[in-house]
Design a protein that fits this description.
This protein has helices at about 5-15, 95-110, 125-130, 155-170; strands at about 1-5, 25-30, 40-45, 50, 70-75. It has about 180 residues and is α/β, with parallel strands linked by helices.
């Protein structure tokens, strides 16, 4: 794993603008804060450190059913023993939530994508589109980031991350995609 900065992520994304990537999907890892996985292009550790298994965003990692070849997978390393109603003993930390929004902003800026649901969904949002999200009854249901903190309304996680990503992008002067 290699530690990277937000600006390095932005530059990596800019270098791969024509690679066929169309979105960044936010996940939780269902692991521990200090446990990165090579299944994700980007790992967001409990202290907000960003790690990547390699520096190629277009590498195909196994993070989202039928969506791996055209998507960047970015995971908050958290939610060990989490489920659809309780994020477990290691819920996302506040720095991880903030950092995830910053990761989304950096990737969208580098790729020149707008920060919207099409380009920056959560795994739950993609699973719902593909028929294995909450309420589907599918044994492989995914609800990653359906909500960000215990007690929040289900279905709010993606909108909250995108709003924070847009605010961060604006504060950096990165602006919207052309």
């Amino acid at each position: 794993m290699q530690v990277v900065t937000l600006e390095e992520l932005r530059q990596l994304a800019a270098a791969e603008r024509n690679s066929g990537l169309v979105r960044i999907i936010s996940h939780w890892s269902a692991g521990h804060y200090d446990q990165p996985f090579e299944d994700y292009d980007i790992n967001n550790l409990g202290d907000g450190t960003i790690e990547m298994p390699n520096l190629i965003l277009a590498d195909v990692e196994a993070h989202c059913w039928h969506r791996n070849s055209d998507s960047i997978g970015a995971a908050i390393c958290a939610c060990y023993k989490g489920n659809s109603s309780d994020l477990g003993p290691e819920p996302p930390t506040e720095i991880q939530i903030e950092r995830q929004a910053q990761i989304i902003a950096a990737i969208c800026s580098g790729m020149q994508w707008p920060i919207d649901k099409e380009h920056a969904p959560t795994h739950e949002e993609m699973a719902t589109i593909d028929g294995y999200g909450p309420g589907s009854g599918d044994p492989e249901t995914r609800w990653d980031l359906w909500f960000l903190r215990n007690g929040e309304a289900p279905g709010t996680g993606g909108d909250m991350l995108r709003a924070a990503a847009q605010a961060f992008s604006d504060s950096q002067g990165w602006g919207q995609a052309a």
